[in-house]
Amino acid sequence: MEGNRILFGSIGIGLSYWFIDSAVDAYVFREGIFVSQLIAPGMKEIWVRLFAMFVLIASGAFAQRTLNKRIKLERALREEKNRIEAIIGAIGEGVSIQGTNYKILYQNPLHKEIAGDHAGEYCYKAYKDRDSVCPDCHLAMSFADGKIHKKEEVRVSREGIVYYEITASPMKDSEGRIIAGVEAFRDNTERKRIEEVLRDSEERFRKVFENGPIGMVMAGPDFRILRANSSVCQMLGYTEQELAGKSLETFTCPEDRQKAAELLGQLMRGQIPLVRLEKRCVKKDGEVLWTNLTTTTLRNRRGEVVYVLCMIEDISKRKFAEEEREELIRELRDAMTRVKTLSGLLPMCAWCRKVRDDKGYWKKVEAYIEEHSDASFTHGICPECLKKYDPETYKSYQGKRREVYAEERRQCTRRTVTEPFNFSCSLHVRESKDLDLNASVTDISDAGAGIKTDYPLQRNALLAFEFGTENRTGIVRWGKSADAEAPAFRAGIEFIAN
């Protein structure tokens, strides 16, 4: 009903016009009585009145239609404005709208919370307490070139230092003219904190990767090396530039490649989280190096492998020790198979020292032991008995022993050298190949020498020495690592006849 007030009003005016015209014709122009003019006027008067009423009603209807359209448009504009304000208010950023004269036209609630309520003020006065536009104003740049501009600002609040990213963009009308500017404040404090944490994490990883005590290699999904730390370079004898681009398979001993490929395939398919494998690597000089390899993958959010990370530990010393231990165990087992043991209580005569066997016969100790073990007896005389029963022979024997002992002691007493001297020697190792190495002598005698070298000598290895014009052959009897300040290996050598 309210939407048709003008239409009903025009109808009322039309009816009022009929009533007034009837009164005028009756009382002014004396064309009859009022009732006859109101109910039954002349034909000409009827057409005039109807035409006038039509014009009034049509004008009212047109005005009503125009008004209704305007009302609907205003309602739609209000709804759109409310919707836009609701959207801007719900955005997690502070938004303000400023005119081309830099006067603040609108602020959403978050912007008011950040910068305060300054609607109607000039931005440079409200935010910077200036009397003119700031020299580096990003909004002025947007007004000038019509593009979006960003900048970062740091502010101190009660909560501490706050980082803001401010984005300025122009607002244009339908013809493309700039009519205002929009500023969006975004709190980047949390992002800055995360970036700082990520930088610290990356720095720690870089230090661990580059300076770690174990070898580390970062490769691509095709297992080609992207980066390698110094420990790996020292292990394999390559520089990082030489390793870059090479496949991990290049350094794997051929005997271990198939097993390594199977495990790495399961790792790439996600069937296992990581690979732990003891495998042999081939160094640049061709020497075989035992390593403990741990490999895992770094994947993106889609689960695709981005990097392959390998940690390599040199376990050559442990492997050599295990081989020696296994060899010793095999030797002991072989010896045990050839030994018969005697256990339990043996009945022995207190006078004649005979032993009673399981059948009740008394036998000499020698005969009993020979029957129940693989031992055999030879007879001699001990020094105590010789001294007791043949003193003359004992004195002669002792004199010869003193001479032999003195000669052996003279040969085995090493003379410590004042300054260790260097010499060259060749080593015959288990791989049946000769190596030339340098060593220095710390002490020496006719029977052997103590040396230092940079090669880990194994027990029972043969060495060929060159002392000037003299050539000697020796065998390694013991060896151990030197102190950490001088990384080398010490070994004791026994000279043998050539």
Can you characterise this structure?
- It is a single chain.
- By secondary structure, the protein is an alpha+beta fold.
- The protein has four domains: 2-84; 93-193, PAS domain (Beta-Lactamase, 2-Layer Sandwich), CATH 3.30.450.20; 213-318, PAS domain (Beta-Lactamase); 413-496, Thrombin, subunit H, CATH 2.40.10.220.
- The chain has 14 helices and 18 strands.
- The strands form four sheets. The chain has a six-stranded antiparallel beta barrel. It has a five-stranded antiparallel β-sheet with strand order 2-1-5-4-3. Strands 7-6-10-9-8 form a five-stranded antiparallel β-sheet, with helices on both faces.
What's the layout of helices and strands?
Blueprint: H1 5-28, H2 34-39, H3 43-90, E1 94-99, E2 104-107, H4 109-115, H5 123-128, H6 138-145, E3 149-157, E4 160-172, E5 178-187, H7 189-211, E6 215-219, E7 225-228, H8 230-236, H9 240-243, H10 257-268, E8 274-282, E9 288-299, E10 305-314, H11 316-337, E11 355-356, E12 362-363, H12 365-372, H13 383-389, H14 391-412, E13 415-428, E14 434-444, E15 448-453, E16 462-467, E17 470-481, E18 489-496
Antiparallel strand pairs: 1-2, 1-5, 3-4, 4-5, 6-7, 6-10, 8-9, 9-10, 11-12, 13-14, 13-16, 14-15, 15-18, 16-17, 17-18
Helix pairs in contact: 1-3, 13-14
Task: From the structure above, extract its key features.
498 residues; alpha+beta; Beta-Lactamase; 4 domains; six-stranded antiparallel beta barrel; five-stranded antiparallel beta sheet; 14 helices; rod-shaped
